[in-house]
Amino acid sequence: MDKSGAAAVDYRGLGKDVFEFFTHRTAFNSAAYLLPTIESMKKENPRLRLLDVGAGVGSVSATLAEVLGPDGHVVCTDLAPSVLPQAQALAESRGVTNISFQTADVHALPFEDGEFDIVHCHQLFGHIRDPVAALREMLRVTKPGGVMAAREGDKETEIIWPPLPGVLKWHEFDSNVAKAHGGTLTAGRQLLAWALEGGAKRDQITVSYGTWLTSEEATKAVYARGISKVLTGPTRQNALKFGLSEEDIDEICRDTLAWADREDATWLMLQTEIIIRK
Ligand SMILES: C[S@@+](CC[C@H](N)C(=O)[O-])C[C@H]1O[C@@H](n2cnc3c(N)ncnc32)[C@H](O)[C@@H]1O
């Protein structure tokens, strides 16, 4: 954890299955609310510059670069330097070239005021201690006339069926880890309040709500394999440190994989999305 209380995810040594789990996100399933705005801004200015903050493995950033088109450019950033080579490799493997990579803390972005037309983050504010300061900083680097956009889940709205004990145990463990790192489980419902506290006026903000849904067979399998690899791979020691026993880990892995095999299995969560016009 750095001195601002931010927790960078340590992606080092995570295996292929965990990587697959993170890279499942794209601009189409995770930033769809922003795409019409990008399309209309692109008509005015095809040379849009977009900053993605807390971008992780950069799978959303890479598809945003594709949406911007060859004249636009994405700067993909994260606090964790260890993830950026993975993000770069992912973009290269998809033939995306209008993207660059840089380490950056959302609390002190290494960019000038108004440097970007679009400043975006996905699932970041729920993981940091001071979302209002982060939001102010993101607004600072947004160009007048540009937009800042964020999408945050609300973990307390998670709905899981069937409620297998190991699956519920994972939900509790994941929430405890987020809280221990200073995160907020109700980020989704607080996002609009944070935006107002960060200085945006209500009439500058468009709010929409979506869901994060895992019910398709392929998505469930990726998700379940990712969870079991997070717990059994190099991060197993962290899981033990956060209070899980060896038996808990076995139960979570067994039940999560069993859950993914069931036709009636569903896992969903409310997502709040905001676009602030500066
Ligand atoms: C849940 S992940 C989301 C990654 C990506 N946006 C996505 O949706 O796939 C949160 C990311 O925020 C990064 N992060 C945490 N604190 C940060 C900070 N202070 N500044 C920038 N990034 C940060 C973590 O390293 C992690 O990659």
Label this structure with key terms:
SAM-dependent_MTases_sf; Methyltranfer_dom; binds S-adenosylmethionine; alpha/beta; about 280 residues; Rossmann fold; disordered N terminus; eight-stranded mixed beta sheet
Structure write-up:
- With 278 residues, the protein is α/β, with parallel strands linked by helices.
- The chain has a single domain (16-277), classed as Rossmann fold, CATH 3.40.50.
- Helices cover 42% and strands 22% of the residues.
- The protein is built from 11 helices and 8 strands.
- It has helices spanning 16-23, 27-30, 35-44, 59-68, 84-93, 131-140, 165-180, 187-197, 217-232, 236-241, 246-261, and strands spanning 49-53, 73-78, 99-103, 116-122, 142-153, 159-161, 205-214, 266-277.
- Strands 1, 2, 3, 4, 5, 6, 7 and 8 form an 8-stranded mixed sheet that branches.
- α5 (84-93) links the parallel β2 and β3 (99-103).
- α1 packs across α9 and α7 packs across α11.
- S-adenosylmethionine binds next to loops.
- Residues 6-9, 22, 25, 30, 53-56, 60, 78-80, 83, 105-107, 122-124, 127-128 line the site of S-adenosylmethionine.
How do you describe this structure in short?
It holds the Pfam family Methyltransf_31. The chain has 278 residues and is of the alpha/beta class.
SSE layout and pairing:
Blueprint: H1 16-23, H2 27-30, H3 35-44, E1 49-53, H4 59-68, E2 73-78, H5 84-93, E3 99-103, E4 116-122, H6 131-140, E5 142-153, E6 159-161, H7 165-180, H8 187-197, E7 205-214, H9 217-232, H10 236-241, H11 246-261, E8 266-277
Helix pairs in contact: 1-9, 7-11, 9-11
This protein binds S-adenosylmethionine (SAM).
